[in-house]
Amino acid sequence: MKEWLTAIMTATAWEMTPPKAYGTFHLSFMLIGFALCFGAAYALRRSSARCMRNILLTVGGVLLVGEVYKQLFYTFYIGGGVYQWWIFPFQLCSVPMYLCLIAPLLPWKRVRHGMYHFMMLYNLLGGAISFAEPSGLIHPYWTLTLHAFIWHMLLVFVGLYLGLSEQVEVRAHTYRNASLVFVGLCVVAFCINLLCWEVSGGSINMFFVGPKNSSLAVFSWFAKQFGWYVSTALYIPSVCLGTYVIYLPFYHYKKKKAGTTNAPA
């Protein structure tokens, strides 16, 4: 089995010159992709609950297939059969793979919509920021680069689709609840980091919350200067603040559609 998987991964290891940040490939994919995502999300804003379920399940399926390939590629081609713990699929931008497959099937509306709100706000932010700072998207292999670009563009689409959809309400408590989910996931990620610290050789850093120093721009500097706990203490509220900027347009858009003018809490 190992030899078979290694052969498949080797056959698909098509090398490429890593595209430059804000070069032709990056800018073209980003601008065209954002336009298509917004256009599709807006066109689908009146889709039925059944259609929404099918769209999210399809996106989740695509993400799952892509993630399985990525895990196998890193393990059997790059790692030579050794699992690479730093790509364990529980980063902020990995969560939609689970939520897109779980949320549409839940019978409890409150829980289902809580997951929708999280993807609408936090995963949209994560997807968009990845294109603003694309170092994590760029690889020396076509399959990994395309996987990363398509993955994060799908997060942008899902966030916009949920934010514009008439099936999803956005209220004053939406941001608070989504943020509580984010903080809860940060705690889970930190526990995963601790539990897998020894077996990963200290390479695992889910959600970039430590105890390994963050590799994210700006926060990596704080980690090196003051320690991972300082960068984490700055990182979590910074993400929450950035998400609030995304929440406001959706909130006012939905309130305008509903014909009300209440101010968000």
Annotate the secondary structure layout.
Elements: H1 2-11, H2 24-43, H3 49-78, H4 95-102, H5 109-132, H6 142-164, H7 174-195, H8 219-226, H9 228-258
Helix pairs in contact: 1-3, 2-6, 3-4, 3-6, 4-5, 5-6, 5-7, 5-9, 7-9, 8-9
Write up this protein:
It is globular and about 60 Å long. The longest helix has 31 residues, at 228-258. The chain has one domain (2-9, 19-258). The protein has 265 residues and is mainly α. Helix 2 runs parallel beside helix 6 (142-164). It contains nine helices and no strands. It has helices spanning 2-11, 24-43, 49-78, 95-102, 109-132, 142-164, 174-195, 219-226, 228-258. The model has no long low-confidence stretch (mean pLDDT 95).
List how many beta strands DSSP finds.
Answer: 0
Helical stretch count?
Answer: 9
What share of residues are in beta strands?
under 5%
Order of H and E elements: HHHHHHHHH
Backbone CA Rg: 19 Å
What distance lies between the first and last C-alpha atoms, to the nearest angstrom? 55 Å
Q: Low-confidence stretches at least 5 residues in length (pLDDT < 50)?
A: none
* Overall body shape: globular
Helix-strand makeup class: mainly alpha
Number of domains in the coordinates? 1
Largest sheet report: none
